[in-house]
């Protein structure tokens, strides 16, 4: 892809930039020395960072050798200056996050360069990434060791959002619960040169490294001459993973002369490298890489690449993570590693991660480790396996001038030590192993097998084919001759023998002649043929006449004794066999038994005869029916299901046939009444017997009758439903034993009605219910009445019964359920009252109330007359309530206004100024305020 060309030599450019930056900074830098391993205070790293100026170098006192600085009060923030921090060696000084916080954070626009330190036990807060370092600026790491750092989010050791360059450093046993077990790179550039990423863990993507796009900024990762091995991912990309959020974004990763192998992931989807599903997740090779399993990597092999897959993985043959020189751990190359001398022949790197020469043997190795000795496995060839004679002397030579050679048996038993040549004398079978050991201790082996082996069988020629001969008619034997075969062997024939010889005498039958040859090696060969001697005279046999008889009493046959026929033959050995029928003295069943006898001689000649044994059955079968049965009907049915035992039958012979001639089968429903059942039994010979029995079903079930419940009525003529009734059989008779039928006139009070139901079998049932007639209540309502508008009237019902009342309509009533409600109607109205007794019987009556809409002004009233009736106590104006805005005034004889009311709500009681006025005549004015002329006149107070 042309768009990737700018990144092919990126690592060379970044290296030159780094060296230039370091040189420039150190010209003007001041040096601050850390003397205390405490977290804060005088002489501490935290104070040095705080006091340093941009570009300063922070070093450490030699008194801190083999010691640790443990942080306890938060991470070290590089936020306003560029700094270089130089340690005493990654194996000499450690900065620990104390499993409480990350160790460093570099802010955007600033640079931190770390050298010769171990960063351990950094732990990012649950919401943050980067267990050891979180970089937003420029991060340079040289010869550092990152171990046991953890992040709940991304980047177990480093989370990079800026530019990061890592040289000759090791990342191991770091853990991210999310992505990037060692390093998470996003929105930045990441360069890894001469470094080892090993035994790191990611819960999701990228057990070693995750290069992820989270925006339109392209994350770029270059891996050069590094080793990524033994990392694990809980999802995909055990060693390395490209990933993205938006499939349109670009992610670029380039590998050069690096080992990516022996990594795993849970889904086995990109165990070593996971490319990412977007076509813009670029996974590039500058060549000379060793990729153990290329499945899902998307990495196309370039020049010098060694690429395996899940079917044929490449084992890089590297040792365990350990110190093999230098201050950081690496994986050494083992004997025969495919990484040996297969690195980039034009690499610009002069040293490996341990700072040792990169060109041992003239060509660089793949990965972070350059072997400093010849680790190639010696290869040699002792030649092909040999089969030869015993005691032959063979000379074998192996090894280069600088190699040592041992000669062994296959069980590692030493034959000859430290000799490049070995003389061997052949035995029956020997295996010789040559062990060649290089100066580096790499061992090569080859094995040759020397043996004496004769695998060729002897050869037998001219073996006769089968021979047929006929025996003499008297002796029944034959003399047979043939030409004997010959035997030979490629080596030496030891034995040649046979079980018969030509001219031997053979009896009638088949005889196998076998010749066997055995050589000195024990190999066998054989040939065989058959000699068949036949008898040409057939045997003879004669049979008996047919035997006919009847069965023995109570048996289905009889025992028959006879002398069996026996055949005769000219040769001995003839045998007579019964091939059908029974032996003499056997019990012969009723029927026909065919007796067949066959005589056979040894040559297969036969003769046969046959006769019959006939037994006739003259005995009738016996049958015994069950007794007559009387049962009751099934509940609710006019029948009964009866299961009865079938008739018992017996006969001298088996195979009886039982037939029901009439009636019903067992398990049938038998109707009420009598049913005759008849059976017949027949034996196989046609002899028969009969029996019968009677089944009587009686109806013993009473009919069902259900009277209505108590019948209550307020009328003397009472109707009700007849009792419900049914019966298991159809015909029933319903009769009234006591009381009256429906529609009759019943007297007040209680009457008992009794009904009887009887079926045709005489079964009967009775039920009883009450008919109760209640009296209607008696009420008396007052006469119709007339009132003025606004007046109230008391409605009263007179009764001697206990009743409930209901007035309709309910308008203008204070209580429509009272015996004596008060009504204030505004119009003339008719009220109806329903009186209900406790038994629900009702009586109705009504009253008419006429409302007058005129004004009645009394001319006198008698306040305080002490008549005890409280009548005429005030001056009541009838019909005045229709006019709420009326104006009423009263004057005395002198013209004084003694009473005034607007809206005549309270009647004048004949008083003035809280005193009762004397008997006399007073003048009134009543103005209705309706546009009509006011009423005037005199009213007299009478006391």
Describe the model.
The chain has 943 residues and is mostly beta strands. It is built from two helices and 87 strands. The strands form 23 sheets. A ten-stranded parallel β-sheet has the order 1-2-5-8-11-15-19-23-27-31, sandwiched between helices. Strand 49 (509-519) and strand 50 form a beta hairpin. The longest helix has 19 residues, at 10-28. The protein is flat. It starts with 9 loop residues before the first helix and ends with a strand. Mean pLDDT is 90; it is low at 1-27.
Quickly list its features.
mainly beta, 943 residues, 3% helix, 43% strand, 87 strands, 10-stranded parallel β-sheet, single chain
Beta-strand residue fraction: 35-45%
Helix content: under 10%
Tell how many strands the DSSP assignment holds: 87
Q: Largest sheet, order of strands side by side?
A: 1-2-5-8-11-15-19-23-27-31
Give the class from helix and strand content and strand pairing: mainly beta
Largest sheet: 10 strands, parallel
Give the termini separation: 132 Å
Oligomer: single chain
Outline: flat
Count of separate DSSP helical elements: 2
Spans where pLDDT lies below 50 across 5 or more residues: 1-27
Determine Rg (CA atoms, Å).
66 Å
Average pLDDT taken over every residue: 90
């Amino acid at each position: 892809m042309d768009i990737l060309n700018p990144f092919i030599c990126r690592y060379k450019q970044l290296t030159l930039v780094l060296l230039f930056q370091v040189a420039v900074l150190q010209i003007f830098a001041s040096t601050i020395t850390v003397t205390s391993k405490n977290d804060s205070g005088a002489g501490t790293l935290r104070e040095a960072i705080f006091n340093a100026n941009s570009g300063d170098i922070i070093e450490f006192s030699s008194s801190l050798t083999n010691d640790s600085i443990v942080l306890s009060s938060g991470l070290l923030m590089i936020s306003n200056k560029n700094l270089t921090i130089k340690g005493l060696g990654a194996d000499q000084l450690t900065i620990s996050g104390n499993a409480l916080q990350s160790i460093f954070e570099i802010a955007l626009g600033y640079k931190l360069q770390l050298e010769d330190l171990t960063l351990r036990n950094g732990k990012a807060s649950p919401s943050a990434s980067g267990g050891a370092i979180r970089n937003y600026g420029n991060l340079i790491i040289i010869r550092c060791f990152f171990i046991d750092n953890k992040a709940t989010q991304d980047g177990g050791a480093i989370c990079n959002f800026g530019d990061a360059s890592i040289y000759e450093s090791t990342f191991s046993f770091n853990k991210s619960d999310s992505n990037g077990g060692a390093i998470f790179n996003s929105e930045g550039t990441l360069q890894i040169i001469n470094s080892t990423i090993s035994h790191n863990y990611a819960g999701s993507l990228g057990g070693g490294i995750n290069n992820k796009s989270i925006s339109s900024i392209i994350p770029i990762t270059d891996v050069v001459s590094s080793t990524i091995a033994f990392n694990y991912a809980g999802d995909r990309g055990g060693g390395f993973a490209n990933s993205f959020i938006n499939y349109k974004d670009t992610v670029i990763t380039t590998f050069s002369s690096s080992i990516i192998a022996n990594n795993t992931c849970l889904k086995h989807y990109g165990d070593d490298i996971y490319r990412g599903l977007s076509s813009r997740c670029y996974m590039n090779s500058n060549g000379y890489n060793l990729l153990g399993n290329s499945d899902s990597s998307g990495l196309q092999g370039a020049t010098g690449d060694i690429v395996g897959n899940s079917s044929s993985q490449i084992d890089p043959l590297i040792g365990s993570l350990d110190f093999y020189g230098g201050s950081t751990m690496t994986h050494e190359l083992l004997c025969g590693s495919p990484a040996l001398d297969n690195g980039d022949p034009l690499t610009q790197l002069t040293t490996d991660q341990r700072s040792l020469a990169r060109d041992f043997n003239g060509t660089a190795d793949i990965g972070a480790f350059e072997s400093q000795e010849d680790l190639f496995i010696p290869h040699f060839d002792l030649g092909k396996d040999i089969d030869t004679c015993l005691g032959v002397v063979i000379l074998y030579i192996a090894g280069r001038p600088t190699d040592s050679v041992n000669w062994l048996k296959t069980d590692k038993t030493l034959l000859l030590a430290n000799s490049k040549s070995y003389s061997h004398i052949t035995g029956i079978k020997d295996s010789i192993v040559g062990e060649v050991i290089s100066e580096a201790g790499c061992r090569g082996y080859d094995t040759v097998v020397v043996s004496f082996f004769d695998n060729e069988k002897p050869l037998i020629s001219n073996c006769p084919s089968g021979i047929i001969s006929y025996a003499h008619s008297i002796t029944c034997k034959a003399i047979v001759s043939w030409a004997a075969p010959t035997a030979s062997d490629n080596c030496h024939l030891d034995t040649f023998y046979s079980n018969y010889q030509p001219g031997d005498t053979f009896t009638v039958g088949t005889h196998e002649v076998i010749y066997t040859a055995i050589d000195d090696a024990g190999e066998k060969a054989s040939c065989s043929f058959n000699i068949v001697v036949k008898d040409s005279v057939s045997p003879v046999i004669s049979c008996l006449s047919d035997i006919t008889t009847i069965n023995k009493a109570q048996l289905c046959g009889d025992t028959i004794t006879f002398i069996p026929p026996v055949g005769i033959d000219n040769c001995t050995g003839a045998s007579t066999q019964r091939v059908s029928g029974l032996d003499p003295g056997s019990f012969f069943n009723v029927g026909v038994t065919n007796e067949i006898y066959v005589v056979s001689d040894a040559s297969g000649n036969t003769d046969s005869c046959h006769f019959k044994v006939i037994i006739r059955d003259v005995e009738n079968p016996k049958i015994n029916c069950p007794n007559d049965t009387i049962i009751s009907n099934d509940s609710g049915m006019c029948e009964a299901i009866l299961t009865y035992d079938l008739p018992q039958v017996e006969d001298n012979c088996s195979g009886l046939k039982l037939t029901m001639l009439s009636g019903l089968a067992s398990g049938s429903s038998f109707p009420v009444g009598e049913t005759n059942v008849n059976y017949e039994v027949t034996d196989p010979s046609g002899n028969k017997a009969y029996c019968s029995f009677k089944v009587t079903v009686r109806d013993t079930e009473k009919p069902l009758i259900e009277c209505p419940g108590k019948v209550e009525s307020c009328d003397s003529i009472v109707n009700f439903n007849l009792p419900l009734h049914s019966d298991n059989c159809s015909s029933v008779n319903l009769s009234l034993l006591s009381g009256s039928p429906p529609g009759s006139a019943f007297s007040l009070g209680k009457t008992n009605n009794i009904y009887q139901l009887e079926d045709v079998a005489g079964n009967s049932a009775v039920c009883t219910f009450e008919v109760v007639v209640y009296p209607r209540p008696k009420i008396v309502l007052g006469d119709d009445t007339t009132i003025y508008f606004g007046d109230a009237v008391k409605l009263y019902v007179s009764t001697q019964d206990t009743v409930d009342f209901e007035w309709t309509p309910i308008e203008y009533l204070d209580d429509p359920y009272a015996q004596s409600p008060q009504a204030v109607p505004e119009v003339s109205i008719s009220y109806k009252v329903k009186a209900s007794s406790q038994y629900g019987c009702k009586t109705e009556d009504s009253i008419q109330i006429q409302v007058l809409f005129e004004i009645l002004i009394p001319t006198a009233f008698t306040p305080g007359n002490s008549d005890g009736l409280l009548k005429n106590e005030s001056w009541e104006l009838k019909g005045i309530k229709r006019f709420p805005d009326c104006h009423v005034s009263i004057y005395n004889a002198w013209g004084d206004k003694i009473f005034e009311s607007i809206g005549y709500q309270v009647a004048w009681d004949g008083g003035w100024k809280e005193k009762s006025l004397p008997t006399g005549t007073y003048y009134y004015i009543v103005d209705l305020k309706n546009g009509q002329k006011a009423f005037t006149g005199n009213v007299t107070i009478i006391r």
